[in-house]
What we know:
- By secondary structure, this protein is mostly helical.
- It has a domain at 25-65.
- Helices cover 55% and strands 0% of the residues.
- The chain contains 3 helices and no strands.
- The protein has helices at 5-8, 25-42, 46-64.
- The mean pLDDT is 90.
- Keywords: Membrane, Transmembrane, Transmembrane helix.
Amino acid sequence: xxxxxxxxxxxxxxxxxxxxxxxxxxxxxxxxxxxxxxxxxxxxxxxxxxxxxxxxxxxxxxxxxxxxxxxxxx
Length: 74
């Protein structure tokens, strides 16, 4: 944000912005998703193994309802 035209040019009155795009979220969100995906598949900890083992049963339950408890009043 600071290096983009909104702050760098309009507020700080520099001649040209270092980062040319006004909305850096277009890039930062994509980079964040790639980072999350990469670190999740390269995580070899015991906690990650446990999460992977629990994923498929939860996926089946969410798609079919098999093994799910009855309706709950919120």
